[in-house]
Amino acid sequence: MASVETAAEHERILREIESTDPNCIGPTLRSVYDGQEHGLFMEKLDVRIRNHDREIEKMCNHHFQGFVDSITELLKVRGEAQKLKSQVTETNKRLQDDGKELIGSMEELKQCRVQQRNISTTIDKLSHCLPVLETYGRLQEQMRAKRYYPALRTLEQLELTCLPRAGQYRFCSIMADNIPKLRSHIRDTAMTQLRDFLESIRKHSDKIGETAIKQAQVQRSLDSSVPTQPRALIGRRSRREASAATGVEDDTQGGSPMSEKDSGILDVEEEDEDDEVPGAHDLVDFSPVYRCLHIYTVLGLRDTFENYYRKQRRKQARLVLQPHSNMHETLEGYRRYFNQIVGFFVVEDHILHTTQGLVNRAYVEELWELALSKIVAALRTHSSYCDDPDLVLDLKNLIVLFADTLQGYGFPVSQLFDMLLEMREQYGEILLKRWNITFRQVLDQDNYSPIPVSTEQEYRQYTSQFPLQDPELEKLPFPKKLPFSEFVPKVYCQIKEFIYACLKYSEDLHLSSTEVDDMIRKSTNLLLTRTLSHCLQYAIKKKNVGLAELVQVIINTTHLEQSCHFLEEFISNITNVPPDTVNAAKLYGTSTFKDARHAAEAEIYTSLNAKIDQFLQLADYNWLVAVQGGGTLAASDYLVDLIAFLNSTFAVFTNLPGTPVEHATLPGKVAQTACMSACKHISTSLMQLLLDPEIRQISIGALQQLQTDVIECESFASAGPVAGFQGDTLLLAFSDLRQLLDLFTQWDWSTYLADYGKPTCKYLRVNPHNALALLEKMKEMGRRSTVFQFRKTDRDRQKLIDTIIKQLRNLITQHHT
């Protein structure tokens, strides 16, 4: 059993040896040597080898003839192959000999093709690199020339077009790395130029505004003959402005839209020789603004730039709108203030119309509204300090020119004209103050004497100053006197000057003729009713004014009153408004001069009475004097002097106006009133002196002396010191005193007591109270006499007086009841 297994194992091993790769036979052989049947295996192996040899031999025997035939044919082929080899070798030799030249040519051709390919590659690369270098070179040149907007365009072309085409080169990488730095440099430089520009126009806004205002003046002078353009105050448009307005720069020329001057203010010496006023665009180089705007637009930072520009301009606006503290002192201060504001808004208007959206209309209008409120507030404040009408008038003209200038640029200025109408009231008050001083000077310097004229020339000179219409005076020969004093023509001329001053302020305020006329009339009424009236009252009321001066004041005011309708015509002529226009204000000159005349008349009466009082203070009656036995009594010295004074005074009243005029007094009425007032005052003063409570005793002798003085006064009244009194009218002033003295001197008490209260009573004007008071003083005098003298007649008289006193008291009681 074991031998059979061993034989089977050996058979398997042999098959493995036959079928396995020789390189892998090791493990199989090892299994043979590991076993103990090595000899047996070797025998099996020899048997297998012999079997294979017998098979090989059989196969060789089977194919041997074919092999022999093949060898024979092969030997035949060898000879032919030798011949062919010789022919091929010979042909190859000939071919080699013939191909050496061709190979050389082919090598040369190959080399040429390589060079050509290299050249083509180089040309292609250079065609992409040269534009980069050229563009970068142009960029550097533009940067050196400070033409930043073209440089930014070139930088954009370099980054987006040239560098991507060039490929990956070191110099391209360097350039690409420098591009952000160049952009930052351009942006910062443009912003620096913009700051310089803003600072420059801030400093030179005064000059810009002055030029714009001059241009407005020139345009306004041409408006009457030349039709205005829509924006009349915009000067001629230069090519520089046109190119700036488009916002496009010529890259082919490498230029910027305007001059590269960064100061912002150009030299205007190159202006045309026609002396045309340059416009704002001729003075200001706006290229920094346009350049910076374009640069920030390209960089995608337009909003940032707009916000920065508007913020800075708002700050500048606040500075410009802040007036100097002493601006109100001189007109130059106001002019500089207005020039700066005009310069600011002229620049903004130009920016508005030459850029697309940097500033818009809403922004400019907002700035103008802010400015307008501050301007009006500043002018109201500073103009209130002004007390010079000439300065106010110049300021008004400056404000009008300022408003017209900005209105030409499209800014609403109605508030400025409303403020000018407010200033008109202030101007009127200042004028009134000045004319108050002028009127007082005229009144103080006047001599209050009729004006003497010796020649026709002098006469015409005065009548040209004052509308005197007196045919009787013109017929008189020279020399002659005008009825009024110097202050009449002077006051009349000053009133006309005041009207002219009011008219000057109303010019260019866009008011209708009716409004101007109304304004002038109201101002003139204030001048007449307030200023001139106060001055006349001052002249009348001041100390040391004599009666002659007061009389002349009455004459002067009468003539001024007559001239009022000439002033009405004068105002109508200069305003072209008929005086009979509906709602037209009337001058109050008539009432003003009438009031002044009445005040002068009252002052005459008051002054005359005061003078009379001075004489009456000299009265020194002896109230206890006894009755003189014989002869006539003489009037008191003080009364004689008083009557002499009155006679000389009333002689002056012959110069009072005697021609009836509208609203004037009747002829001689002032003199008559003064004379009547003087007589009444004398009578009343003597009555008060007689009834003075401090005088406790009065004798009949004193009453007789007083009666003598009254007779002297009645003589004066009867002599007619002033013409025009009818009958004994003037004597009525002394009737109360006369009847009282007659009652006591004639001792006619029975008649008085019997007829008291009847219209036919002889002593109708005797007041029982006055009679009782005087009787009490006589009773006291009688009582004093009876103490020392015990005559029966005196005692009887004293009893009579007591009886009359009782009757008078009963009469007073009954009358009172």
From TrEMBL:
Task: Return one Gene Ontology term, BP aspect.
Answer: vesicle tethering involved in exocytosis
Exocyst complex subunit EXOC6/Sec15 C-terminal domain sequence ranges: 415-777
Example GO CC term: the record gives: plasma membrane
Name of one Pfam family that matches? EXOC6_Sec15_N
Compositional bias, Polar residues, is annotated for: 216-228
Q: Where is the Exocyst complex component EXOC6/Sec15 N-terminal domain?
A: 44-213
Q: Where is this region: Disordered?
A: 216-262
Out of the domains of life, which is the source? Eukaryota
Q: Which UniProt keywords apply?
A: Exocytosis, Transport
Q: Does the keyword Repeat apply?
A: no
To which protein family does this belong? Answer: Belongs to the SEC15 family.
PANTHER family per the UniProt record, alphabetical:
EXOCYST COMPLEX COMPONENT 6B, SEC15
**What does this chain do?**
Component of the exocyst complex involved in the docking of exocytic vesicles with fusion sites on the plasma membrane.
Protein name (Swiss-Prot/TrEMBL) = Exocyst complex component
